[in-house]
């Protein structure tokens, strides 16, 4: 683990990052520390990038989160994370983030397992399998479940969930805001 | 809270923005700031416009955190917005400039303060750690605990500052009066452990309890009215608790209002909200997965069972039996407590020396019951075979009833004891009356008696104080008599308030001990046992019998509620109880969190207690109300003890208030109070309250009605949408047939593109950086490549490039970043200017998309965007018109291109929606141009009309419709003019081309039509001509310049011809170039573009 050049962020940068994210000063600094620890030696933190593997090995995502690869894809650019990408990710997952933002990113995470911009049956089945952490979920269960999900939230009967439908359903969930959070980005 | 406010604000702003300038507007508006020459924009001096702009920028700044853009874009937008606001605000008026600066400063300060406050939220890290291990359910317990801790801190401050400290500082010192001295025959044992343990001895005669407080009306030099303060603080404790609870509940219910509606997305929530992203611990993740399986299975079963109702006699019988059992155990526990209290009373009366057990048996028994009974209930609940959730509810209700029953039976038994004490007190008084005049004694009797002889003692009230003096003086005189000693002792012992306080404190302490013991025994040692003996045991300890302790959230929360109830009940009699509770909660927090992290597994039946859930709070409120009753009852019903406490000698505790009012307030105030408390005022006030309640209720009812109406409306809208969808599908199939002829050509191109995609890809990679630092390197890389690409490959390589790029983009944002895509593709394709400038171009683009909407809608005389559905059709129209000029102006090549476009469209149709992310799009440069606009608009709508519905799924179809009719429509004048202009300029610049030949191949690849190269070339020409840009290939410089100019131009465009903005995106690019040209030669061109 190298250390990037200890370039302390300037006050203005911190201010800007705080204005742009839902993170507090300390959280930003903490993420900065983590980032610096992970990124290759001798690089300015703004230019350094982390690979998806590095990000998904963070304790917050490591091993446990069934959607970590999706998260990485959604938040990275060109398959690498710049510092700002990491900040953006942390901001979306912070407890202070507004619901619309969270829902938007949640949709991105769930939607595109097969990359068509909708949550269709394949996506749903994939999500369920990931959630249950097995691939041998009973076929009945899967079918049943997708049927029910689409039945209650697919408003236009096209057997897919668009963002609008997804948002409509999720904005009413009492638990979504609580569960779609990640706190600790430290190592 | 902050977030909710923000989001609300965000929503409102979004609404505004969607009406005025949809989605991406801020970006190009923000360009304004780069242009400092005011004269170019005719109406930029219009303060209204500037003001609007500034307002918009401010909104943007406030809500930028909520925008789902990548950080870089956000950063850019923010900086621009800041600049613009600073610049223009100062220009508008000086005061506004100051205001802005002030607001900025204030914002900074708020942020700083927020940062600061966050540090001081206790146990934040601890809770977060727990959250990351066990998820939000378990953490909600700790958050609740922390909240209770906060309340107790306030209560402690209240009692500490207004009661305890004044008494300590200004009150009479220990030993100075009878109520503050330990009786002589108790002094010897005052420091024994068991005396201290049972809160006797020194503890009993300390500030811990009611009895210690002096009854002097004013203490200290400042004349602090301690008794009054005591009473008021005692009431304020309840009032504060009520207010803070209700406030919190109201806030929560406001937050969960959305989920209160009938619409239930059970399955959706179960799947999409199932994963707790906080979980970071593999074990927790496993159990979470198991819980998810359970909940999903349950949901399906439930769904199926909803349809068929099964009523088995057996289960009903079992349930009846179970309920009987529960009732029995409840009754048993209540009887037991009552019995124990009774017994302890008898023992106290008869026995001289009590053993440790006898002293503490009441609280021990109560604590034991509170510990054991819930598990018994759980066993019983297994009989009932309810659904787990119902089981949990039943369990909670029963436990709550148990706790309440315990507290109530305890307090009733205690009050019983108080009754008997007052009887003995009366006897004492009778003894005492030997030394006191009869009339003086009378007032100390109960009120009814007093009322019997009002005529005989007319001055009772006035003499009250003096009676006490009289009463006490004789006793001190007869100091030596045995009977006196007996009296004094009895009097001191007979302080029932202290007694109640002692009991409550004892109960609290023993409860704490039992909690600690249960954590250690049930959780820790069991955990150790299971962990280390499982290897050498005959069965698997970890998964079969003892297992690890589960963290039962609901029961633990109930325990907290119970604990708080004890505090409320005893706070009046023992002012230090809240302080003790603070310590207890701190200890509990550390112990529990340690235990949870070391030796607990999460509950299988995860009780979903989100923060917005009012369940805990409702229980707490219930508890508060019920705990307040006995205290209020005691205050109102019982006479305060004669010899101890601040109210000694008064008839009733609350008399202190009326007394103070009578003695220390002016006469008029007295009469006012008299009027207010008379039925003349109170009855109307009550009536008014009832009326108010009725009124509010009827309002709530009507709101509910409106809600249901709105829901109906939404549903009908939905069905309309479905119809539209069907129509669109029809239209789609029609156009599809028409388009299918063309794909062959496009296939050809497609292949070519594939063959050449390799080299350009690198290029694309490089190009996609748009940070200022990386620009120059980009160019250097781009140059060689463009050189390589020979004119032979005219069409294909570019396509390749664009394809590569879009692919590239694809990887990055599989779906949402249309804007970027557009920018990139655009820059690759028709615009032909270097990709580095994409950010520049992107802005006008957005504007185009945005601005187009308005005129179009107005023009077509359509209703305003209702719910964001209708506008899409306008988009279609617009598309047509946009296409017209092209079709008319384009060279034959266009046809070919169009084919490509069709191909792309077909593709997009298949892919629906977000096609842009697909590489196929890149095949058709124009198309991508168009599509990106389309996408843009879609985006705009997506963002601006949040509650949009289905129809936006089917935007592409609109597009086809438009496509179908495209060529028939005539070009509008302006558009054509624009194109002409571009043509002209293109030719005009032609002679520069050789100079930049290395660039040209690429451009031509893009589009062999001359007008494209022209765009590309112009900035270059400018560079050449103007000495300021010496570095010929400092594209970064030129690009920035370009940016400025384009924005200027762009603004002009906006102001001058709102109507023709459809093509503004394209135009602005061209125009920007044309403006640059201005320096070169052609003013007429400029006029053209600006007209």
From TrEMBL, chain A:
InterPro entries: CIBP, EF-hand-dom_pair, EF_Hand_1_Ca_BS, EF_hand_dom. GO terms for molecular function: calcium ion binding; magnesium ion binding. Keywords: Calcium, Magnesium, Metal-binding, Repeat. Residues 102-171 form the EF-hand domain. CDD domains: EFh (cd00051). Coiled coil: none annotated. It comes from the Eukaryota. PANTHER family: CALCIUM AND INTEGRIN BINDING FAMILY MEMBER 2, CALCIUM AND INTEGRIN-BINDING FAMILY MEMBER 4. This is Calcium and integrin binding family member 4. It comes from Sarcophilus harrisii (Tasmanian devil).
């Amino acid at each position: 683990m190298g250390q990037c050049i200890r370039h302390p962020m300037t006050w203005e940068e911190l201010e800007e990052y705080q204005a742009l994210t839902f993170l507090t000063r300390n959280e930003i600094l903490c993420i900065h520390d983590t980032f610096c620890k992970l990124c290759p030696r001798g690089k300015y933190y703004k230019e350094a990038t982390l690979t998806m593997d590095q990000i998904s090995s963070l304790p917050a995502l490591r091993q446990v989160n069934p959607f970590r690869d999706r998260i990485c894809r959604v938040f990275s650019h060109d398959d690498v994370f710049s510092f700002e990408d990491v900040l953006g990710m942390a901001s979306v997952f912070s407890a202070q983030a507004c619901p619309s933002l969270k829902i938007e990113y949640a949709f991105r995470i769930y939607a595109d397992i097969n990359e068509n911009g909708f949550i269709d049956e394949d996506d749903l089945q994939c999500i369920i399998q990931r959630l249950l952490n097995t691939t041998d979920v009973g076929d009945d269960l899967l079918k049943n479940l997708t049927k029910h999900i689409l039945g209650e939230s697919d408003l236009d009967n096209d057997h897919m969930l668009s963002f609008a439908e997804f948002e409509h359903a999720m904005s009413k969930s009492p638990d979504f805001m609580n569960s779609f959070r990640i706190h600790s980005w430290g190592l | 809270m902050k977030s909710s406010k923000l989001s609300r604000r965000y929503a409102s702003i979004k609404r505004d923005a969607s009406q005025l300038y949809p989605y991406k507007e801020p970006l190009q508006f923000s360009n304004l700031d780069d242009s400092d020459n005011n004269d170019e924009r005719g109406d930029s001096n219009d303060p209204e416009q500037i003001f609007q702009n500034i307002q918009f920028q401010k909104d943007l700044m406030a809500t930028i955190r909520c925008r789902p853009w990548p950080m870089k874009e956000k950063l850019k937008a923010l900086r621009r917005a800041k600049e613009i606001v600073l610049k223009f605000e100062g220009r508008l008026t000086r005061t506004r400039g100051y205001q802005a600066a002030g607001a900025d400063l204030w914002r900074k300060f708020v942020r700083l303060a927020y940062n600061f406050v966050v540090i001081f939220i206790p146990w934040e890290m601890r809770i977060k750690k727990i959250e990351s291990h066990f998820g939000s359910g378990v953490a909600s317990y700790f958050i609740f605990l922390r909240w209770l801790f906060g309340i107790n801190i306030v209560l402690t401050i209240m009692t500490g500052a207004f009661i305890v400290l004044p008494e300590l500082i200004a009150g009479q010192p220990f030993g100075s009066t009878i109520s503050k001295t330990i009786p002589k025959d108790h002094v010897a044992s005052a420091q024994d452990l068991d005396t201290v343990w049972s809160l006797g001895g020194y503890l009993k005669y300390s500030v811990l309890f009611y009895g210690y407080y002096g009854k002097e009306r004013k203490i200290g030099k400042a004349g602090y009215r301690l008794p009054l303060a005591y009473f008021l603080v005692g009431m304020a404790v309840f009032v504060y608790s009520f207010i803070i609870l209700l406030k919190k509940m109201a806030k929560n219910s406001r937050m969960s209002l959305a989920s209160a509606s009938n619409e239930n997305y059970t399955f959706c929530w179960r799947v999409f909200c199932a994963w707790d992203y906080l979980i970071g611990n593999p074990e927790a993740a496993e159990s979470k997965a198991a819980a998810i399986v359970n909940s999903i299975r349950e949901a399906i079963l439930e769904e199926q069972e909803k349809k068929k109702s099964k009523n088995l006699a057996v289960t009903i019988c079992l349930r009846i039996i179970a309920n009987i059992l529960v009732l029995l155990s409840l009754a048993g526990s209540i009887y037991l407590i009552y019995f124990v209290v009774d017994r302890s009373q008898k023992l106290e009366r008869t026995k001289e020396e009590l053993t440790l057990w006898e002293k503490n048996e009441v609280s021990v028994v109560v604590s034991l019951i509170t510990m054991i009974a819930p598990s018994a209930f759980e066993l019983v609940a297994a009989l009932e075979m309810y659904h787990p959730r119902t089981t949990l509810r039943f369990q909670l209700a029963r436990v709550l009833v148990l706790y309440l029953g315990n507290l109530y039976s305890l307090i009733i038994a205690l009050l019983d004891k108080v009754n008997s004490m007052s009887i003995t007190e009366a006897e004492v008084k009778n003894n005492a009356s030997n030394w006191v005049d009869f009339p003086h004694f009378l007032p100390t009797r109960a009120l009814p008696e007093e009322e019997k002889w009002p005529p005989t003692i007319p001055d009772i009230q006035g003499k009250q104080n003096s009676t006490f003096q009289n009463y006490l003086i004789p006793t001190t005189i007869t100091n030596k008599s045995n009977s006196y000693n007996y009296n004094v002792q009895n009097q001191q012992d007979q302080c029932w308030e202290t007694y109640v306080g002692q009991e409550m404190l004892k109960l609290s302490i023993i409860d704490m001990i039992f909690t600690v013991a249960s954590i250690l025994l049930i959780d820790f040692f069991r955990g150790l046992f299971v962990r280390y003996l499982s290897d050498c045991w005959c069965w698997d300890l970890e998964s079969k019998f003892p297992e690890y302790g589960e963290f039962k959230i609901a029961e633990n929360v109930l325990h907290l509620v119970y604990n708080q109830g004890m505090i409320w009940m005893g706070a009046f009699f023992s002012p230090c109880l809240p302080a003790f509770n603070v310590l207890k909660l701190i200890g509990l927090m550390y112990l529990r969190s340690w235990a949870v992290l070391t030796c607990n597994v999460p509950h299988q039946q995860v009780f979903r207690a989100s923060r917005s859930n009012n369940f805990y709070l409702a229980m707490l409120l219930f508890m508060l109300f019920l705990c307040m009753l006995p205290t209020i009852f005691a205050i109102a019903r019982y006479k305060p003890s004669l010899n101890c406490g601040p109210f000694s000698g008064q008839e009733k505790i609350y008399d202190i208030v009326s007394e103070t009012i009578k003695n220390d307030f002016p006469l008029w105030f007295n009469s006012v109070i008299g009027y207010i408390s008379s039925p003349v005022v109170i009855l109307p006030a009550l009536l008014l309250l009832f009326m108010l309640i009725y009124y509010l209720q009827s309002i709530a009812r009507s709101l509910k009605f409106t809600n249901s109406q709105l829901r109906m409306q939404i549903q009908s809208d939905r069905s309309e949408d479905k119809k539209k969808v069907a129509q669109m599908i029809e239209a789609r199939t029609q156009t599809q047939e028409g388009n299918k002829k063309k794909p062959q050509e496009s296939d050809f191109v497609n292949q070519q593109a594939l063959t050449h995609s390799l080299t350009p890809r690198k290029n694309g990679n490089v190009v996609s950086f748009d940070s200022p630092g990386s620009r120059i390197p980009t160019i250097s890389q781009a140059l060689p490549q463009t050189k390589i690409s020979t004119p032979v490959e005219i069409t294909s390589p570019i396509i390749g490039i664009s394809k590569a790029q879009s692919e590239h983009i694809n990887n990055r944002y599989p779906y949402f970043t249309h804007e970027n895509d557009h920018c990139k593709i655009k820059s690759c394709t028709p615009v032909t200017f270097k990709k580095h400038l994409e950010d520049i171009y992107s802005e006008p683009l957005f504007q185009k998309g945005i601005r187009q909407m308005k005129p179009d809608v107005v023009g077509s005389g359509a209703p305003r965007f209702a719910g964001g559905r209708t506008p899409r059709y306008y988009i279609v129209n617009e598309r047509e018109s946009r296409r017209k000029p092209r079709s008319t102006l384009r060279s034959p090549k266009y046809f070919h291109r169009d084919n490509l476009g069709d191909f792309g469209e077909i593709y997009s149709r298949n892919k629906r929606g977000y096609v842009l992310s697909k590489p196929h799009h890149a095949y058709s440069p124009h198309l991508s141009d168009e599509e990106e606009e389309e996408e843009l608009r879609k985006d705009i709508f997506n963002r601006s009309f949040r509650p949009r519905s289905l129809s936006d799924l089917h935007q592409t179809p609109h597009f086809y419709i438009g496509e179908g009719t495209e060529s028939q429509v005539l070009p509008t004048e302006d558009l054509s003019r624009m194109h002409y202009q571009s043509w002209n300029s293109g030719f005009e610049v032609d002679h520069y081309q050789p100079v930049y030949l290395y660039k040209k191949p690429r451009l031509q690849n893009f589009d062999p039509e001359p007008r494209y190269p022209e765009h590309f070339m112009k900035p270059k020409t400018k560079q050449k001509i103007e000495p300021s840009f010496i570095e010929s290939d400092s594209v970064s410089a030129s690009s920035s310049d370009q940016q400025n100019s384009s924005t200027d131009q762009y603004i002009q465009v906006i102001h001058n011809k709102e109507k023709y903005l459809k093509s503004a995106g394209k135009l602005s690019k061209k125009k920007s170039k044309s403006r640059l040209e201005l320096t070169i030669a052609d003013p007429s061109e400029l006029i053209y573009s600006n007209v």
